[in-house]
Amino acid sequence: MKRRPKNPAFDELKTMLPTALIVNGLILVGAALYGIFEGVTWRAFAGMIYGNLLCAGNFILIGSTAVSTVSGASEKKGRFFANMSYGLRYVGLFICLGGALWLNLIDLIPAFAPLFIPKIHYTLKYVLAGKNPPDLNNF
C-alpha cells in the first residue's frame, strides 16, 4: 500500500494565522464603522466566520490536490486532476456563498474578504522579504 504524503496546507495555515487575525480585525473595524451609520446585524459576523471556514477549507483542498497531483501516476493525469479540482473548488465556493446569500444568512463583504487571506499573506511575505514573487505564468 502506497503511503500518502502529509498535506502541507495545515502547516501553511499555522503560518498564515497572524495575517488572518489582521484581516479579520480590519473586517471588524469596517463593520463597526459601518454600524455607526447603518447598524450591523448578526449576518455580518456570521459572514465573517463563514468566509474564514470557506478560506480554510479551500486552502486545505488546494494542498490535498497538490499532494495527489505530485504523487500521481502520470503528468497528463495529474494535470487533468489539478484542473478539475481547480474548477470544482470555484464552483463549490460559488454555490456555498450564493446559497448562504440567497438564504439571507450572511452579508457579502464580510464573507468574501477572508477568501483573500492566502493571497495577502504570500504577497506580504515576499514583499517584506525583499523578493519578487515567482512568476507562475511561465511554466
Task: Explain this structure.
The protein is an all-alpha fold. It has one domain. Helix content is 75%, strand content 0%. The protein is built from five helices and no strands. Helix 1 runs antiparallel to helix 2, helix 1 packs across helix 5 and helix 2 packs antiparallel against helix 3. The mean pLDDT is 82.
How confident overall, as mean pLDDT? 82
Which class do the helix and strand fractions yield?
mainly alpha
Indicate the radius of gyration in whole angstroms.
18 Å
Helical fraction: over 70%
Per DSSP E runs of 2 or more residues, the count of β-strands stands at 0
Please work out how many helical segments DSSP would assign. Answer: 5
Report the major sheet.
none
Low-confidence stretches: none
Order of helices and strands: HHHHH
- Residues in β-strands, percent: under 5%
- How many independent structural domains? 1
Shape by Cα distribution? globular
State the end-to-end distance.
Answer: 32 Å
Gist of the model:
The protein is 75% helix and 0% strand. The chain is mainly alpha-helical and 139 residues long. Helix 1 (9-37) packs across helix 5 and helix 2 packs antiparallel against helix 3.
